[in-house]
Automatic annotation (TrEMBL):
Name of the protein this chain belongs to: Pyrroline-5-carboxylate reductase
Presence of the UniProt keyword DNA damage in the record: no
EC assignment: 1.5.1.2
Molecular function as annotated in GO: pyrroline-5-carboxylate reductase activity
Record localization: Cytoplasm
Pfam families, sorted: F420_oxidored, P5CR_dimer
Domain Pyrroline-5-carboxylate reductase dimerisation: residue ranges: 168-272
Function: Catalyzes the reduction of 1-pyrroline-5-carboxylate (PCA) to L-proline.
UniProt gene name: proC
Pathway(s) it belongs to: Amino-acid biosynthesis; L-proline biosynthesis; L-proline from L-glutamate 5-semialdehyde: step 1/1
Primary location: cytoplasm
Species annotation: Salinicola endophyticus
Family: Belongs to the pyrroline-5-carboxylate reductase family.
Family matches, as InterPro entries: 6-PGluconate_DH-like_C_sf, NAD(P)-bd_dom_sf, P5C_Rdtase_cat_N, P5CR-like_CS, P5CR_dimer, Pyrroline-COOH_reductase
Pyrroline-5-carboxylate reductase catalytic N-terminal domain mapped to chain residues: 9-104
Amino acid sequence: MTDSSQASRITFIGAGNMASAIFGGMLDSGYPAAAITATSRSQERLDAIAAQYPVNTTRDNLAAVAEADVVVLAVKPQMMRELCLSLREAVQARRPLIMSVAAGLEAATLEQWLGGELPVIRCMPNTPSLVGAGASGLYANARVDAAQRSLAGELLGAVGLVEWVEEEAQIDAVTAVAGSGPAYCFLFMESLEAAGIALGLAPESARRLALQTVYGAAKMARESEFEPAELRRRVTSPNGTTERAIQSFQDAELARIVAEAAEAAAERARELSRELSQN
Ligand SMILES: NC(=O)C1=CN([C@@H]2O[C@H](COP(=O)(O)OP(=O)(O)OC[C@H]3O[C@@H](n4cnc5c(N)ncnc54)[C@H](OP(=O)(O)O)[C@@H]3O)[C@@H](O)[C@H]2O)C=CC1
Ligand SMILES: O=C(O)[C@@H]1CCC=N1
């Protein structure tokens, strides 16, 4: 997708799950490995990365930033302040595009920790990025130009769907729906599997059926010309088995339960934002 000599140089600080999912996807879609650098504090982690991906690795964050056009910050939110302060001089000398995948950390806070006046893109990816089926929300501050926006879209687009939001607060909603969302789906799979076992299926069989059913329904909903509500109606025969199950979900107010769970996640994102900006 990108000519090696012209490719933007991208440094991932924190070569963990999320960073490796993103650069793994970029490599799969043809981004030149020579233009990607990943850093970590432990050599062990870097050795594991180097064994799996042909990217450059180093424990030296400052050297990696000094050569970067884009710096992707991918450490835990609670580690971000200390990291940013340590990178400040190198970042100010180079002024790369800053991308952060940390939950609950506002662009202005990051920009301030890094010394100010920087283009910052806040991303909220999710773990299905690991299998190329991620869903990410992106927000750009006013200093980000069109080429940087397009590059960020290309980066996250290499591991799945990308949705831009215009208001930074909407990233909390993306977190509640997509960032945390895979866990809700896994919980549903666990429950469906347990229900299958309770009804007499062998455990392995119940798991396979539950997983394939959720996968098949998601694939069908993605590919169909009909919206999910219509697809649901098509499964639900009048006075049949599905109707009884759906009635049971509706009696238990599934929609309200999901709305409350998502609101709890969004509120935690806002709370994290307040906690982290006070540091
Ligand atoms: N997991 C998820 O579902 C999602 C996570 N996120 C966000 O992604 C970010 C990373 O999460 P995740 O990948 O799961 O976490 P990981 O713990 O897998 O990755 C973080 C990595 O950062 C490295 N690290 C920590 N401090 C430094 C430092 N100072 N310099 C260089 N490397 C450092 C750690 O390795 P070492 O100790 O060797 O340095 C570790 O490998 C978080 O901010 C999280 O909010 C966003 C969306 C979804
Ligand atoms: O649970 C969390 O805080 C992170 C952010 C979204 C998914 N995992």
